[in-house]
Each structure stands twice: as C-alpha cells, then as structure tokens.
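Hi D.,

Good news: the full-assembly prediction came through. Inputs first.
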Amino acid sequence: MELLALLAFPVLGAAVLAVVGARRWAPEVNVGFSAATFAAACALTSRVIGDGSFTAFGEQFFIDAFNVFLVTLTAFVSLTTSLFSRPYMRIESEHGRVRPQHLRLYHSMYQLFIAAMLLALTSNNMGMLWVAMEAATLSTVLLVTLYRTPASLEAGWKYFILCSVGIAQALFGTILLYFAAERVLGGSGMTALLWTNLNEVKGQLEPEVLTLAFVFLLVGYGTKVGLAPLHNWLPDAHAEGPTPISAVLSGLLLNVAIYAVVRCKVLVEGSLQSELPSRMLMAFGLLSVVLAALFLWRQKDVKRLFAYSSIEHMGIITFAFGMGGAVANFAALLHMTVHSLTKSAIFYSVGHAAQKTGTQTIDDIRGLVTVSPTVGWGLMMGTLAILGMPPFGVFASEFLILTTAMRQEPWSTPILLLALGIAFAAVFRRVQPMVFGETTAKRLPHSPALLPVFAHLALVLLLGVSIPPYLADWYRMAAELISGQ
Amino acid sequence: MSDLSLDLQILNAIAALFLLLAFGMLSQRRVVTLVKLLAVQAALLCAATLLLAWRTGETHLYLSALLTLVLKVLFLPWLLNRLIKRLGVYWDSEPLLQISGTMLIGVLLVIFSFGLAQPIVALASTATRSGIGIAIAVVLLSFLTMITRRKAMSQVVGFLSMENGLFFGAMSATYGMPMIVELGVALDVLVAMLVLGVFFFQIREQFDSLDLHHLESLREDR
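Then the structure:
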C-alpha cells in the first residue's frame, strides 16, 4: 500500500503538472506532490523497520533495509529540492532565462524523474531496474537543455548519447545475467530475473558468464555513476542544467546508479567466490578519485567544480563498496547519505550565488559573505563539510573508509589521502575568495530563503557528531545485507 | 550443414544478413539509406523472432515480434525519415576515418566478438546459439558507426542498430527477455526517440545545422 502510494504520487504529480502547466501555483503543486511522496516513503520505512524486508506485487518489488534508506533519502532530497526550486525557478523565469511554457516541461519531468528513480530502487526485477535507469536518463535530458543555450544543448546531447550507449552495455549485462539465471531457475520469464531469486541461487550461477555480465553491468551503470574514464557527461550536464536539476542529479541519480552496481556486485561475488568484482570496483573507484582531484584544479566554473567533486566522492563510495566487509559497507552507505545531503545543499547555495551575480564563473563571484551572509555561510559550511572537515558527517564516513583501507588495502591509503588532500586544496582555494573576497557589490535587501541548505547541513552535522542509534542499526543491517552475511 | 533443419538454416541466413547489414551501415554516408538499412535490419530481427516463435511455440516471442514490427520496422524509420525531411539532413559529412580503414577495424571487431562469445555459446542450449557471436559483433559495429560519424542523425541510427543487436543477442541466447522487460525496453526506446525529435529541433534552432562539431565547445579549459 505504502509502496503503491510511493510510486503513484510522482507519476500522478507528473500528469497533474503537465495539465497545470505554467500557472503561478505550479511550483506549489510540485512541492505538494514531493511532500506526499516523502510521506509515503516515511510510512514505507516505518513498515520495514517494524516488519523487516518484504516483496510485493507478485514479487516484482522488493524492499529491504538497503533500498528503503535510499528511498527515504531520495524522497527527502527531492522534497527539499522542490522547495528550493520554487523561488529559484521563479526568479529564473523573471530574468528571462527560461520561458514560462518550458516550466510545464520542467515540473512534469521533475516528478517523472523522481518516479523513475524510486522505481529503480524498489524494483526486484533486474530488467525493470534497467528500464527505470534509462527512464531516469531520458526524463532529465530535456531538463539539462532547458535554457536552450548552445552549451546546454551540447551538454544534453553528450548526456543522452553517452548514457544511452553506456546503459546499452548494462542491458547486455542483464541479458547475460538472465542467460545464466535461466539455466538454474528455469525458463519462466517472470521469475528468473528477480533479484531475490537470483540471490538465493547465486552460488550455482555460471561464474564465467557472470564475470562477463559484471564487466558489462559495471561499465553500463558505472557510466551513470560517473566513474572515470566514463565520466565525461557528468560535469557538462551538471553545469549547464538548471541548478535544482544539478542538485538532484548529483545528490540522487548517482546514488541510484551506485545502488544498481552494488546489487549486481552482490550477485556476482556470490557466484564467483573470487576477489575480481571487488578489485574492479576498487580500481574504478580509485581512478575516479585521483582523476577528479586532478581535474578539480583546472575548473573555472563553480558548478563544474562541484560536479568534479561529485565524481571524486562517487569514487570514494565505489572504492569502499569494493573493499567490502561490514565496516566499509557501513561507511559507504553513510557516505552516500552525507554526500547526497551536502552536495545538494552546496548546489542550492551555488544556485543562489550564481543567480545574484548572474554568472557561474568563479572569478566573477566575490565576497558573498558581504552580499548575502546566508548564501556565503551556507556555501562555506557546505564546502567545509564536503571536504571532510570534522565535525560534519563526511568526516566520519571518510575516516571510517580510510581506516578500513589501512587495515584491508594498505597500498591504497597513500593514494587516497593524497587525492583527498589535492581535492581539498583545489576546492578550498576557489571557494574561499568567492565567500570572503573583496567586492564592490552592495548587500542585498532581502536574504534568500535557504531553509533547505541549513536543514541539510544540520542533518550532516548530526550524522557527524552522533548517528542516532536506530539509524546506525539500520545502516548496519543494510551493510550486512550487502556483505551477504 | 546438411543436418540442420530448414528453419535453422533460414535463421542462420538471417543472422548472416544481419551482420552484413551492420557493415553496410558502417560504410553508408547517405542518412536516408542508413535509415532504410536500419528498417531492413529490424525487419530481419522481426522475421527471426517470428521463425523462432513458430519453432518453439512460445507466445511471448510472437508478441515480441509484433512489437519489433510496429515499433522498429514501421514507426521509428517513419519518424526518422520525417525528421530528416523536416530538418533537411540528407548526407553525413566526411567520416572521421577512411571507410576502408573503418571496415578493417570492423573485421577485427567481428573476430574479437566471436572469441568473446565462445564461452557463452559453449554453455547455451538454444538452437540459435551461433547467433550470439553475431549479436555481439553487431553491437560493436554499431558502436563503431556511432564514433566515426559527425551527424547526430547517423549516431542515433547507430544507437538503434545497437539496440537491435542486443535484442538479437537476447533472442539467440535465451529466446528473448521476459515480456515485461521487453515492453519496458521498447517503451524506453520509443521515449528516447521522441525526446530526440524534440532535441534535434532545439539543436537546429540554435545552430541551423545538425553537425556535431558545433557541439564541441565544452572543453575542460573553458
């Protein structure tokens, strides 16, 4: 019931918003549907906490501790983003950057995008997971090109073609998975691709086929995660789309893609009984961290800067899942949460800052703290949080990942530490003058409403200082599920 | 080959033609012809699925064949042709590589694909398992088509041909994917093409052309 509501609200929202169009109260309707989705997600969560994991609708859907936490996170961030988008997009359309009739597309697609991500998270069928991931890409392509500038069209085209080709590889991986599963589970098409069934028989799946399948699945979904060297679409799509879309792409879509990779990894690892999937994840993860850290130095556009920082963090998470084990998985899940919250908060502040100054170029944004203290401090605190300064949550998860790396994969620790150091210096030296630099601009009469920014940062702070016990239990449960214990 | 039944021989002939068409696309510069080749390729896929459905008696294969017929043989080529006419893109510009060179790489890719398919073919129990190598080859050749073209339209045709190759692979290895997945994939392809249709008009409105070299300004040092 909760599940049906969870999936129905955003779909319904998309339909209603397509009808509402560009009326003045469309943003409010958008917020309303996001709030309803979040309420359904909360109800679903309380049910999972009470009754444990369950399947629904002929086993086509499956909820466990791992995906329900991502469902809640997705619903929460999509709610706060819709709150942020309300004044933001209004100002954008007043500035004439977006035509009113395009707002219909924007709101409708926003809800469809959320629906696609929730479907990807809750589906038990590996084939449907693929379908939902592709739907999530398609629903955002036209959002990236919303401003119709040459740069945004280029970004949209890159996003479309790279992700489609990438995800075609994942389809081939899924076919191979089905091929291996059919030999064990029999040919009844509806059940052989269900993750729960596959998980039960993973020991009997043909290792050779699954190795091949995993390579394709990792490359396919890895493209969507933004793992180097398949990351080319990510900075462009983040930089050229409207800021609320950057926030949900970075904060939510990347998480969902990682979720798909991890689900596949659990199956393949169970079949192979070897280190290969772990090694591959670690290699891709480490490469992404290092490359992103180096690219961070060259960025001149503030949204691109933080897009590269997303690649870096996705690398860290992938690396942690690659190490495996209860602690590393716990840390990776925590990192997914705090990255999602912090990065979307940063994009909200960056969005406001760019809107006030009318540019995304770092050199042209100066002295935010004088112009608008809330935006300035929001950006500064968000940056410190994402760079892993204590007492924010990112510090806790990065610390856990690093100490586990020292114990399990000592060779990787210096590389990780160096990359994190480089990234710190690269980002901080850019953001510091943006916030504290000298400016001739006058202080704004009204400070923008930044409730979502500070709500997110407060949560990240809370997760850094002390994780509430029930939440910790929940992460632990999910981490154990992934470790297959 | 004499011990093969007639329907299997036909299936193998279709598979061979399927591969040949992928090479045809690789060398073709006229966008209109490219779309025609794509439609023929989809028709071959449809015929193979029908034959297989008749052979195995599985109903979902009939549905899958119908879906291929309606969506990929009739609707998508129609949509692409309409786009070509309205946007006026009939020719692709010089490919990034010489055609002969691309063909040579293509041959190497086919050899590689058959090597890659070997372990899967050894495990498969379907009568059509020899098609798996061909499917992988078509996927890789389509990929090659995509990366050697400049025009957005040719790249899209490459992408759709890749999708056809994947379906052919699924058919050869497992007699198709579960119905719900096939429906979902078909829906995604359909939506993707509609999104592209909108997208093409946006690109042309902005640049007066569908040449992708306009879309190369987002460099790292920008």
